[in-house]
Amino acid sequence: MRVAVFSDIQGNPLALGAVLADIAAAGGVDAHWCVGDAVAKGYDSVGVMERLLALPNLIAVRGNTDRNTLSDTWRDRAPTLDEAQADRKELMRLIALVRSFAWTRDAITSAGHYDWLAALPLERRVALPDGTRVLLVHAAPGTDGGLGLHAGQSGEEMRAALR
Questions:
Q1: Predicted confidence band at 53 (pLDDT cuts at 50, 70, 90)?
Q2: What is the residue-averaged pLDDT of the chain?
Q3: For residue 82, how far is the Cα from the chain centroid?
Q4: Which one of 3, 34, 35, 89 is most buried, counting C-beta atoms within 10 A?
Q5: Element counts in the chain: helices (H) and strands (E)
Q6: Whole-angstrom Cα distance, residue 33 to residue 4?
Q7: Are the C-beta atoms of 32 and 57 separated by less than 8 Å?
Q8: What is the DSSP letter of 140?
Q9: Which ranges in 87-128 belong to alpha helices (H)?
């Protein structure tokens, strides 16, 4: 079974187009797995979602920018109003965050894709035809953000996260 696994498209249809062209040039795949961050930041989240939804055998999970688009959880990492008032760079960063996520949320809602994005799970478990089990996540099991699994973790820390 041939599977294409990709993430962090972040509303960039040029990047998604390049990935899909590479997949086609390699002879195609049996399934497409998008492991988060389909939307936000880029200039055409609606176009990206429409291309994703047209892919055969798509399995998708939620990433942190998907979550930030659906709600205001991005505020946890945004500068406070006091920080924004004290530092023009922080003010510009706050304005960019508000504009980006609000614009993307409105665009996908207007296009009728909000409910699909909101229904994405944090993780999906897939069994391949040969019995191999695969866990699809954006960052780590149970979360779509943070450091995720990484090489600096001990084997026990990774095993605990995967339990």
A1: very high
A2: 91
A3: 30
A4: 34
A5: 7, 5
A6: 6
A7: yes
A8: B
A9: 88-110, 114-118
Amino acid sitting at position 5: V
User: Closest Cα partner for 5 from 39, 37, 32?
Assistant: 32
Q: How far is CA 92 from CA 60, 81, 99, 103, 105, in A?
A: 32, 11, 10, 16, 20
**For residue 57, which of 32, 20, 28 has the smallest C-alpha distance?**
32
Q: What's residue 87's pLDDT? A: 86
Residue 153 has which token pair?
Answer: 């973790």
Task: Report whether 147 contacts 139 (CB < 8 A).
Answer: yes
> Is the pLDDT score of 110 beyond 90?
yes
pLDDT tens string 129-158: 999 999 999 999 988 888 888 888 888 988
Rounded to two decimals, the pTM is 0.86
Reading the block at residue 61, the tokens are 């999970």
- Residue range 68-84, pLDDT digits in tens: 999 877 667 777 778 88
Q: Which amino acid is at 11?
A: G
Q: What is the pLDDT of residue 32?
A: 98
